[in-house]
Amino acid sequence: MAGARTSTAIGRTTAALGAAGTIALAPIAGAVVPAFAQEAAAALDPITIRVGANEGFTRVEFAGIVGSRSRVRRDGQVVVVRIGSTAAPDVSRLKVDPPPGVEKVETRAALDATELVITLAEGADARTGSADGAVWLNLYPAGAAPAAPAGAAVPTGGAVPVVVMKTAEQVSLSFAWGAPVGAAVFRRGDAVWVVFDTAARMDMSKAHDLGPAGQARWAMGPDYTAVRIPAPEGLAVSAVGEGATWRIVIGGPTAATTSVAVDRDDTAEASLVAHMAGATRTVWLTDPMVGDRFAAVTALAPGKGFADERRTVDLTLLPTAQGLAVETPTDDLSIKAEGDLVTLTRPGGLTMSPPSMALDAAAPPEDHAPRKAEFPALILTEWADTGEEGFSSRYRKLQDAAAQESIAASDNPRAPIEDRLALTRFLVGSGLGFEAIGVVNAMFAETPSLQGEPELRGLRGAARASIGRLEEATLDFSSGALAGDPSTKVWQGWLAAEQGDWEEARRAFAGGATAIDDFPPIWRARFGAAHAMAALETGDLNAAKSLLAYSFSQNAPAADQLTARLVQARLFELEGATDRALAVFKAVGRAPLDGIATPAKLGVIRIELAKGTMTPTAAAAQLEQLKWRWRGDATELSVIRTLGGLYLSQGRYREALDTLRGAGKRLGDLPGAVELQSDLSNAFRALFLDGAADGLQPVQALALFYDFRDLTPVGADGDEMVRRLARRLVDVDLLDQAAELLKYQVDNRLEGVAKAQVATTLATVLLMDRQPEPALQALWSSRTTLLPTALSAERRALEARALMDLGRYDHALETLDGDRSAEAQQVRADIFWKQENWAGAAALYESRMGDRYTNTAAALTPDEESRVIRAGVGYSLAHDAGALSRLSRNYAPFKDRARSGAALRIALDGLDGMEGAANAQDFAGLTAGADTFTGWVNQMKTQLRERTGGNRAAATPARPNAPAAAAPAGG
After folding, report:
1. Would you say residue 294 has pLDDT above 50?
2. Whole-angstrom Cα distance, residue 545 to residue 564?
3. Do residues 16 and 45 make contact, with C-beta atoms less than 8 angstroms apart?
4. Are strands 183-188 and 320-322 parallel, antiparallel or unpaired?
5. For helices 752-768 and 716-731, what crossing angle results, to 10°?
6. How many other C-beta atoms lie within 10 A of the C-beta of residue 619?
7. Do residues 477 and 492 touch, judged by C-beta distance below 8 A?
8. Which residues have a Cβ under 8 Å from the Cβ of 42 and sit 6 or more positions away?
9. Kindly report the CA angle at 470 between 464 and 474, in degrees rounded to 5?
């Protein structure tokens, strides 16, 4: 019968735990009409989420033994509900159909908890509180939130009137504020303190005689007001809030108030959490009589106080009539009011006794029960001992005792946990990590306060580490309950080594030196090998030799010995004995264990590449295979970095970037991921900043940049990359693509002078592409003050050229008014030409040539020929024979070597009697081949090339530094 009863009870418990995280879409109040389909939920579900709505708001309630302990905080438009369960509740209906005023609903994992993240829409609001054994959250659409209390808290006149009513036994003080304020009221020694969360003067003119109490004194701080009233210790204190008035009664019978519940929270750093609706502010005060420092936490009405006195090493919670009062001997106590929760903690957590101290005493353990270790995360060799009865019998006996204890705990929260701890020790010692985790998780689900029990956190962390759940193990060992424990330091060192964080591994192993010899031999061997690898990678070869000797002395299983041999091979490699290292790597690489063979094969590739006995192409092929053979830890990271470096050295840039970026997304949490990201950034910089991509075709370079544009660094380097790539596109007349790159920079990445500089380049490219309107928009949208003089002149010339292209000649000339720079004169000449102001245009074209005519040894450039031709035609059409004669005399020696010799000869000879045979338009047609726009475009291309280093030879990207050897996967 007992066996059947146990089975049934366990079945009920499992079913109840399986129901954790259900969501019940049910009505929550008579005034709230259900907005969604309803689903009944079991009354005893650990987490029950109820959702209801009316026309004004949506209400979400978190109930159940776990749900009612939820914590709500708000950060801007994001509301985070922390639920103390790693099993995420089913909120699919909220995600698919968010309530009004909510943009999206997400869940995310946290330390031994799940967080429900609710993003509010613009203008939406939220209110939170607790009632009827549940935590509630009201969500209001934009404009629907209840209005804040009207009126200022400080009454007209600037002082709060205090009215006194007294008898021989008691006195009542009424503080009449202009609006509701938070208050804290409590006794401290022989004085009553009244603290408000608003600064104001107190009008005590009617509060001279306080009957049984002494004379009140008040003080005002930057955001609070405190009143101290001497009163004999025998007088009771009560507080009542009525609208904007607080009435404090000293003496008489004690008034009943709603009690503030205070619980411990061990989900992260050990802390105390007070559930106090309407908490507003923490006020730190100094007692003028004693000189010590204490805190008061104010809260809005109705009255709520803490009835008991609670002491820990770090603080004392005083009894209060309203709010909270906290004394502390420390100077780093943190008291934070968030919604209806007040959290008290310190850096590293509060010092509190284990939760098991509050449980009933357990019966004396049987002789065969696994005994408690000296340290909470320590594994003892004897735990795996099955004795003469064998494994199955011992396992069944411990399991039955644990089941009976679990049944008792379902009815008695103070039931002992020793039998369940004994079962967990046996499972951890026997290497049954999954089963041990299940037992501990069931204990936490049944009694959440046990999350602060050091041994349970240590055992679960050890079990998680043993089955490869390194991140989960790290969370357990980071618990404040294990702070300062040497056995925990040993585990943290091993975890850090597994993840490639060698510096942290050495520090942690040093902190756990006093406990490492108490572990079983198999774990001593693993810890020794991991510590040796950490010593190698931090340059301490002598320590690595000693630690390897320690590991080999443990007579560990073959897999662990191979792990140590792998570390030994790395030691040989660093000492320069590459032949010995290669032999050991090859031997270990033949092992049928991928976690050990993969880093060994990587070592073989690394050495043979350095010796020249393996080609980069063959090495890359082998590394591609290794990349898929072992994944998810520092070993894969080392393979990826080596492969990426090989691809870069071979000029296979796309493959290199693909390889490095793909691993960075998946392995971003590993310590070595920083170096990987550095490799990726350096490769991208080498391609597009140092000129390595100059060897690619412009279209290929553009495609590569677009595919990896998320790697563009922020700041000047990223902007320079874009400008250089744009220059290459301009060189091959891919003007639309160049403009698109530059426009993205202007619109999204730059401000001030930098934006004006890039916008100037953008306008130049757009004008090259004959798009004057977008060019003007680029210039006008990037206007700013205090630009460099040269940049301002360049922008004026571009603006005038764009206006000219739009036919707005007068506006263009006004833009250039007073500007005599070379760029301005060139544009002004083109405008005069288009206006048929032949004399003005010709004079400017000639002046732009300067004394070039004196250098007859060098032929005219195409741009210079265009200016001379236009000058000659202009003088002819303006009938300025003297100017034409001068021009012809100066440039006649250049006729025979001119590219457009016939046009230059006719332009310099003038009409010469052809006035009747040809009109001005026919003669001006001679300049069709002397297009100054083409000359300007070529000039701009040259200028852009010079500014972005386009005249240099293409660079070769440097290979990443050889990555450190990866730690082998733990066995």
Report:
1. yes
2. 11
3. yes
4. antiparallel
5. 10
6. 18
7. yes
8. 16, 19, 22, 48
9. 90
pLDDT of residue 1: 36
Q: Is 781 strand, coil or helix?
A: coil
Cα–Cα dist 771/742, whole Å: 15
* Element holding 789 (H helix, E strand): helix 789-805
Which candidate, 177, 178, 175, 246, places its Cα nearest to that of 204?
175
User: What stretches of 146-265 adopt beta strand conformation (E)?
Assistant: 159-166, 170-176, 183-188, 191-196, 201-203, 217-220, 225-230, 237-242, 245-251, 258-259, 261-265
Residue 323 carries which DSSP code? S
**Taking the chain, what is the end-to-end CA distance rounded to the nearest angstrom?**
43
Q: Which distant-in-sequence residues (6+ apart) come within 8 Å of 550 by Cβ? A: 524, 528
pTM of the model: 0.58
Burial of 629 (0-12, 13-18, 19+ CB in 10 A): middle
pLDDT at 421: 92
Mean pLDDT of 818-840: 84
What type of residue sits at position 195?
Answer: V
Which of these, 195, 191, 181, 174, lies nearest to 325 by C-alpha position?
A: 195
Confidence check: pLDDT of 438 > 70: yes
Stated length of the chain: 971
Q: Round the average pLDDT of the chain to a whole number and report it.
A: 81
pLDDT at 913: 45
d(CA 457, CA 111): 12
Burial class of residue 929 (count of CB atoms within 10 Å of its CB; 0-12, 13-18, 19+): middle
In whole angstroms, how far apart are CA 274 and each of 62, 208, 338? Answer: 17, 36, 10
Instruction: Determine the Cα angle at 262 with ends 256 and 266, to 5°.
Output: 170
Of 507, 556, 558, the C-alpha closest to 531 is: 507
Task: Please tell me the predicted confidence (pLDDT) of residue 11.
Answer: 32
Q: Is the pLDDT of residue 464 over 90?
A: yes
- The SS3 call for residue 50 is strand
> Do the beta carbons of residue 836 and residue 860 sit within 8 Å?
no
**pLDDT surpassing 80 at residue 767:** yes
Span 211-225, pLDDT tens digits: 888 888 899 888 899
Query: Where is 271: in which H helix or E strand?
Result: strand 271-275
Question: Contact, 449 vs 84, CB < 8 A?
Answer: no
> Which phi and psi (to 5°) does residue 116 adopt?
-95, 115
**793, HSE (Cβ side, Cα atoms, 13 Å):** 12
Please state, in angstroms and rounded to a whole number, the distance separating the CA atoms of residues 755 and 757.
Answer: 5
Neighbour count for residue 243 (Cβ, 10 Å): 11
Contact 832, 841 (CB under 8 A): yes
Say how far apart CA 595 and CA 631 lie, in whole Å: 9
Rounded-to-integer distance, Cα 744 and Cα 750, Å: 9
Instruction: Note if the bond before 302 is cis, omega within 30 degrees.
Output: yes
Query: What are the tokens at 551?
Result: 């590991």
Cα distances from 723 to residues 385, 720, 729, 740, 935, in angstroms, run 71, 5, 10, 11, 22
- The yes-or-no verdict on residue 691 having pLDDT over 80 is no
With contact defined as beta carbons under 8 Å apart, do 271 and 316 qualify? Answer: no
Query: In whole angstroms, what is the distance from residue 38 CA to residue 627 CA?
Result: 50
Give long-range contacts, CB 8 A cutoff, 24+ apart: 673-676: 673/637, 675/641, 675/960, 675/961, 675/963, 676/637, 676/640, 676/641
User: What pLDDT shows up at residue 278?
Assistant: 86
The pLDDT of residue 2 is 38
Q: Which amino acid is at 512?
A: G
Per-residue b or e along 848-864, where b marks 16 or more CB atoms closer than 10 Å to that residue's CB: bbeebbeeeeeebeebb
C-alpha distances (whole Å) from 596 to each of 589, 590, 966 are 7, 9, 10
pLDDT digits (tens, 9 = 90+) for 139-180: 999 877 665 454 578 887 788 999 998 888 889 999 999 899
How many other C-beta atoms are found inside a 10 Å radius of the C-beta of residue 496? 24
